[in-house]
Amino acid sequence: MKALLVLLALLPLGLAYYKLESAIDPIKMLYNTTGIGAITLLLLSLVPSSCKRVCGQNFLRYRKTIGLLSFAYAFLHVSVFVALDSEFDFITIFEKSLKKPFIYIGTIAFIILLFMALTSFKKLFAKLSKYHKAVYLALALALLHSFWAQKVAGMFEYSVVAVGLVLLGERVWAWQNKKPL
Amino acid sequence: MNITPEALFEARRHFLKLGAGALVSSTAISQLLAETPLDMSLTYTPDPNPLKLSPNTLEQITNYVNFYEFSTDKTAPVKLSQKMKTDPWSVGFFGDIKTEQMLRVDELIVKFGLEERIYRFRCVEGWSMVVPWIGFPLYKLLDYLEPNSKAKYVKFTTRHDPSLFPDQSKGIFASIPHPYVEGLRMDEARNPLTFIAVGMYGKRLLPQNGAPIRLVVPWKYGFKSIKSLDLIECVETEPLNTWQAIDAKEYGFYANVNPAVDHPRWTQSKERLLGKLTKQATLPFNGYEKEVASLYAGMDLRKFF
Description:
Helix content of chain B: 10-25%
Largest sheet of chain A: none
Number of strands of chain B: 12
Order of helices and strands of chain A: HHHHHHHHH
Oligomer: heterodimer
Distance between the termini of chain B: 40 Å
């Protein structure tokens, strides 16, 4: 079941690879595929615990897999930035790009996801799982980053914010009703 | 010498005959007039292409566009615009000129003739392409309109017609304020590079590329090159262009391509040429420094970005 989930989640990447040859703006296409993938999976990673509270279905065993998939997409997204967009020009990256709020906001979100991915193994997770609440911050920053990336926010940006608000709202509601988060 | 290309001459005669008929008033004839298929091919003087630029393919240029009147998506306007009626189409010329008037695109073509200009095109978003435009330089039109001494700027407006452009019918939910407005200083407008395009690759412009008539200012970011023109006005004060109105911190009036001045959100030193997975350096004034740098002598281009 988990294997199927991974396969399904990686499908857009396969499609992007297939389309790369004929893409009109390949770097932008890769940015979009990996960025949309990371945010969508990040939102999906919040679904299992909401689902358990709201409808009693337990999908918590998939949460880590979805989270790691989201990190994988975010990692590729950052790789596109470093390797293709900046062409490993670290001077420009540090002197110019990272000064721009839109980029450092995204970088902070990525660092949070990186921390969560590195501490997702059993031993470390037992010790550090309480810090995994930082996913909410990562999500908020990622949403801001996706909004900022556009000249004018479109359907996708508004949709993910709406879904994000529902998922975060459910957590606030559960917390106020003293249900375990 | 002004020789009207034969095809245009014939088309015009056809048009005039039908027009005369329509005046006598028969709905059948006006129907026929409306349905007359537009001859899409153009006769023009080819660009000798001294810079040896290789144009992007028609497929690339016509399938990757910013045309927010249809959608903020780069590919959606292609589908959304196919039914757009771009003929007949008149452009209004108003403001501080000798005679305010309206002229059909076909009349403009006959009046000024057509030539090809293979230009680099650089979007503020960081992508670029090379386009073989067909049209005429704006100064020819301005010479004809005879702006008076009060005319310091030229203001351009995109057609406002919600039946053509879906985003214009969305009211407060529109992606940008409509109609789209752009402007040039008179000396910029009169620069020989500044071009009014009606076609590319030997054919009329497709709707998604700003049919039937648009501006092309090759040394400025693409958003200055306003599409589907409705009005050209010669005015006294600097027009507030749409993107400056939306966010003056990020988009100025001049919008000269400048690798040394970053956009607040992304660097401008390199660009992605459409179709390429590698990047190339962006040139000052998009490679037209020799022709236009003098227009900005003494100006701080960080301030006037």
